[in-house]
Design brief:
The two termini are about 20 Å apart. Strand 9, helix 8 and strand 10 form a beta-alpha-beta unit. This protein is α/β, with parallel strands linked by helices. Helix content is about 40%, strand content about 15%. It has two domains: about 200 residues, Glycogen Phosphorylase B (Rossmann fold); about 160 residues, Glycogen Phosphorylase B (Rossmann fold, 3-Layer(aba) Sandwich), CATH 3.40.50.2000. The strands form two sheets. It has a seven-stranded parallel beta sheet, sandwiched between helices.
C-alpha cells in the first residue's frame, strides 16, 4: 500500500492540524515499520513551499520525503480550483492512497482519495476563518467530501457533523482521535503557577471572552489575588485587538503573551500552569486539553463541539458565551484544592484512554477500505 500524505500543515510552527498530521505520521511509522513483512505500507510525505524545506528527520525515518519548491498559495489555488496538477505528477510516482490533511482533495486520477476534516465551523461561522479557508472551504468542501473515498475525523462530534452537514454516509468516516503524549505526570501543581491558554489566537478560540472573564476575576479579587494569565500560541491578524488590550489596564501586568511555542518547550509550558482554560466556540478535538490532562493539570473547557467528549467528567464545562461562567470555573479551581485535585486525577485517567497506536490502526483500515471503494467505483 503506497500512501502519499500532505505534510504541509506540519512543516513549520505546527498548530493543531499540523501537530495532528505530524503525530499521525509518527504513529503509522511505529505501527507499520517499513521493514516489516506482515503488511505493505509505504509512506511518502509531500511538502511544497517557496522558502521552507522539509528535511529528513530521525522521527520521520522510514518515510520518503518529497519536497517541491512551489509557493503554498499558488499550489492550493491550482489544486482547489483547477484540480491540477495530479499529486502523482508532482510526487513523481504512483500511489494507492492520497491523503489530504484538510477537507479538500489532493487531485489524483487513480489513487483512493482521503481527506481529514477536523471541524465544519468554516460553514457555520465563516467570519471566524481567514485566507484560503474562507475563500475555498465553504464553496468546495461539501463536493470534495462526497467524492472522497474516506474521511478521517478526530472526534465523534465531528463525525456527526460531517454526516449531518456535508451529507457523507457514516460508513465512509473514520474516527481517529489524537493520542496522549507519553509525558510523566507532575507531582504537584505549582503554588505560584499561572492560568494557561494554549492555541492559535483566532476568533474561534474565544480569546476575547477569556479576557472578559479575567477582568471579572480582577474586579472581584484584585491583581494580587489572581494568578497571571499566559496566552501561548501563534497570533493571527485578528488577534491584534486582544494584544493591544492586554497592554492596557486592568489587564496590563496580569496577562502575558508568549507567542508561538516550539514543540520541545510545550511540556515545560504546561508544567508551570495551575490550570488550562479552553473556552473555544468550537473545537474538532482540542489537543491542548488532552496534553494538559496527561500531566495532571485541571482543565476548564467550553461545553461546545468536541470538548465535552474529550474532557468527560474531568473538569468544569462552561458556556463560552458567558464570561461569568468562565470566571467562576477558574475561581473555583484556584480556590478549592480538593476539587482541583479530583479534576486532575480524573483527567489523568481519561488521558490514558487516548492512544496514537489505536488511531494508526484505524487509519490503516480506512486506507484499505478507501482502496476497495475506489476499485468498486
Amino acid at each position: 500500500m503506497r500512501v502519499l500524505i500532505d505534510y504541509r500543515p506540519a512543516l513549520r510552527e505546527r498548530s493543531g492540524v499540523g501537530e495532528y498530521t505530524h503525530q499521525l505520521v509518527k504513529a503509522l511509522l511505529a505501527a507499520y515499520p517499513p521493514d516489516a513483512t506482515a503488511h505493505e505500507l509505504t509512506l511518502s510525505l509531500f511538502s511544497s513551499s517557496w522558502k521552507d524545506r522539509l528535511m529528513p528527520a530521525a522521527e520521520l525515518a522510514g518515510a520518503a520525503i518529497i519536497d517541491r519548491r512551489i509557493p503554498v498559495r499558488l499550489l492550493n489555488l491550482s489544486w482547489h480550483r483547477l484540480e491540477w496538477p495530479a499529486a502523482e505528477t508532482l510526487a513523481g510516482g504512483p500511489f494507492d492512497v492520497t491523503h489530504s490533511s484538510h477537507p479538500l482533495l489532493m487531485p489524483s486520477p487513480a489513487a483512493a482519495q482521503v481527506v481529514t476534516i477536523h471541524d465544519v465551523n468554516f460553514l457555520s461561522n465563516p467570519e471566524r476563518t481567514r485566507a484560503e479557508i474562507r475563500r475555498d472551504y465553504p464553496a468546495l468542501a461539501r463536493d470534495h467530501a462526497n467524492r472522497a473515498d474516506g474521511i478521517l475525523v478526530s472526534s465523534a462530534f465531528t463525525a456527526g457533523e460531517v454526516e449531518r452537514v456535508l451529507g457523507v454516509p457514516r460508513d465512509r468516516i473514520a474516527v481517529g482521535p489524537p493520542g496522549a503524549p507519553d509525558w510523566t505526570p507532575r507531582a504537584a501543581a505549582p503554588k505560584d503557577g499561572y492560568v494557561l491558554f494554549f492555541g492559535t489566537l483566532e476568533p474561534r478560540k474565544n480569546v476575547g471572552g477569556l479576557l472578559d472573564a479575567y477582568e471579572r476575576l480582577l474586579s472581584g479579587a484584585g491583581p494580587r489575588g489572581v494568578p497571571e494569565l499566559v496566552l501561548a500560541g501563534q497570533a493571527t491578524d485578528e488577534a491584534r485587538p486582544w494584544l493591544e488590550r492586554i497592554e492596557q489596564p486592568p489587564l496590563k501586568g496580569v496577562v502575558r503573551y508568549t507567542g508561538y511555542v516550539e514543540d520541545g518547550k510545550r511540556q515545560a509550558l504546561y508544567q508551570g500552569a495551575r490550570l488550562l482554560v479552553q473556552p473555544s466556540f468550537e473545537e474538532g478535538f482540542g489537543i491542548p486539553v488532552l496534553e494538559a490532562m496527561s500531566l495532571g493539570i485541571p482543565v476548564v473547557a467550553a461545553n461546545r463541539g468536541s470538548l465535552p467528549e474529550v474532557v468527560g467528567d474531568a473538569g468544569p464545562l462552561v458556556d463560552p458565551e458567558r464570561p461569568d461562567d468562565i470566571a467562576n470555573a477558574i475561581a473555583r479551581l484556584l480556590a478549592d484544592e480538593a476539587y482541583a485535585a479530583t479534576c486532575a486525577s480524573r483527567g489523568l485517567a481519561r488521558a490514558r484512554t487516548f492512544s496514537w497506536e489505536r488511531t494508526a490502526h484505524r487509519v490503516y483500515d480506512m486506507y484499505r477500505q478507501a482502496i476497495e471503494r475506489r476499485r468498486n467505483r
